[in-house]
Amino acid sequence: MASPTRSHDLSGAPTAERIYVPPMAAQGGALPGPRARRAFVTLLGVDLWERFSFFGMAAILVLYLTAAPADGGLGMASQTATAVFAAYMSLNFMAGLPGGWLADRVLGARRAVLLGGALIATGHAVLSITSAPALYAGLALIVAGTGLAKPSLAAMVAAVSGAEKREAAFSRFYMCIQVSALLAPVVTGLLAEKVAWHLGFAAAAFGMAAGLAQFGIGLRAFDDVGRSPVRPVSREEARTALRRAAVGLAVAAAAVTAVAAGALPLTAVLALLGLSTLSLPFLYLRTLRRRTPVDGKRLSAFTGVMGASAAFWMIFAQSGSVLALFAERHTDRAVLGFDVPASWFQSVHPLFVLLLAPFVTRLRGPVTTKFAAALGAAGLSFLVMAAAALLAQDGTVSAAWLIGVYLLYSFGEIVLAPAGLALAAAVAPPGFTSRFLALNGMFAAVGVVLGGQLFRLTAVLPLSVYFLLMGSAVLAVGAAVAATARRVRPYLPA
Fold it and tell me: In the predicted model, what is the mean pLDDT of the chain?
């Protein structure tokens, strides 16, 4: 998920992440001159290393899950591995909600970053152990750590930069994320595929540890920024939150233990998690409809457009799973006698984003036009993959097929991601902006889960037919957005 975890700011320029930003981000007061620059560089460094660990691990995860035990992998079926990857990615989207709340009400941003980073580094280290229990424990630690660290980093960037420089600050963060996304698969992929899987995960753990060390050294530049919670939780709220957290953790721990012990099928847990992810944004919208003064027709139009965006992320999120497997099994990767690691193809997308962003972000037009164009690019990419899969039945195909697909992905992301965030912010009434922005991530998670579950169809369908059906379905969604644009446009911001 680009990885589906990259995004843009509310004006349309690229920014750091599609995440929940707690209210601390709205405080404004920037640090004075040189101290603000030192604080910003410190945050930039820790975010760069955190994204290095994330993208590096994501590039090799599915390949590790499907590798034969004799080669150090877990020997998982492709359909199950892609479902695990989708569940992991969707949980990263969701974790920012409780993580942001903890940073805002309990820990403060600094402690949230330190604790989150420590959990991420520990999770990568646990993943270097080749066993199913280590896999689930490691992924759970990374999800929890990401939920704590990412919202807090964004809030601290906003606080040290000030309102006037906030957009430029997040734009610089976005560009650094692309650099991490470009380099991380090369480093971790080379170690994992050419030496040993555990070295790839260890490299990701090292990256996060380096970021934490830099953050600890640079804390003196922050003054009081992030030192304490913005709005400390009351004793009664704390007791309620602890009870709910204890129940949630107990259920999660029981599920992981049952799966690791073989008492509960992994597919059943993934299906339950998928159903929860699919229902959550609609339940959340129902709650917001009762609690916000938004016009019902406007909220319905917003829901329809955001629901359509899930189709884009359904295609987009399969980059690290389905396309990674295609690169490994069906693509000619020999270059001058060197067999290019399949994970290196994950670096093509961020390279295109770096090249295209300065031009594509200048495009103007109604939000429905942008969504329809992005959905068209995503659907077309899987039609290209259908042709590639058809040719691959007689052997491997040129890497140019995948490169073309990543070019379409990149265009679609740059067009749709900022439009989605801008729409959510514009529709939200005063005081509800963060919650409407969170909905953007929730609908992206819906797409991620759908893509992971629908790949199970390849157990009964040829790969070329799967790509054809998926691409055609997304093109149909894009056509529906275009066809209904005139009817819904009056209820959406210009």
Answer: 79
Taking alpha carbons only, the member of 202, 201, 179, 264 closest to residue 63 is: 201
Asked if 319 contacts 2 with a C-beta cutoff of 8 angstroms, the reply is yes
CB within 8 A of 335, min separation 6: which ones? none
For the whole model, what pTM was predicted? 0.74
Per-residue model confidence as pLDDT tens digits over 289-298: 777 677 778 8
